[in-house]
Amino acid sequence: MTAVRDLITPALASQLDRLDLLARLLVEGFLTGLHRSPYHGFSAEFAEYRRYQPGEPTTNLDWRVLARRDQAYQKVFAEETNLRCTLLVDCSASMRFTGNEKARPDKLAYARVLAACLAYLLLRQNDAVGLVAFDEAPLLRVPARSVRRQLFQVLKGLKDAPPGTGTRLGPVLHKVAESIPRRGLVILISDLFDEPGEVLAGLKHFRHRGHEVLVFQVLDPREVDLDFPGEVEFSALEDPGRRLRTEPAHVRADYQAQLDGWRRQLRRECRHHLIDLIELVTDQPVGPALGAYLMKRGRLH
Q: Is 74 a residue whose pLDDT tops 80?
């Protein structure tokens, strides 16, 4: 059976203003398609029955079942999570790139959809969720809370975050790391276009303060394969005065070699410091990203 996450393509997602509806459709469709979730669900939510063992507390004993069947069963509830998550969304100018305007969204639109889905999923578990939108500095903050209205606040923040300019990932990550009062989960959604050493230093700051860190690197397919036909003029989104006219076929091999080296360095260092790095391209559905989150979430218990 076709899953909802497969029906809603990123291109369609970028055209939908109702992020709350989109997040619900994507997340519910994804969870329905799972054979078995790695977690039970909400805090204080009923999960299953288990036969009572003599000597155990009787607090959760189901007396009605005992009366009907003369057998003692305990109600098992999902554990309380008390997780505090901060979503960091890169709004810098480079995130507005798309190599095919008609077929897929730009990276920022994709990041907004992914952040909305993660916020919905976290709040569905009664976890606390906050948001920081940034470019060279934090542009907008939504403090982490677990109340029902928080989804509206996070989605409003995603919509209202002003368009950014340049990128200074390292200093921003250091600043945010110092501002989060409790250990929790930090999820960064970015193209990571900055000096690898600066990026990794900022991520390690979160690890030093005891946070779990999950990074979604979002790239456009044409940033990966440089598959442009004929001669093309490139302009730097974060420095419009810089322009280069060339035939991509002539520079593709060198470009991809440098790109692969940069990505290998990020993978290696993230793995060494126990930071989960998930690489996404904007023609992918959000399912792989949600699956990666659920794997991380399962390891937190």
A: no
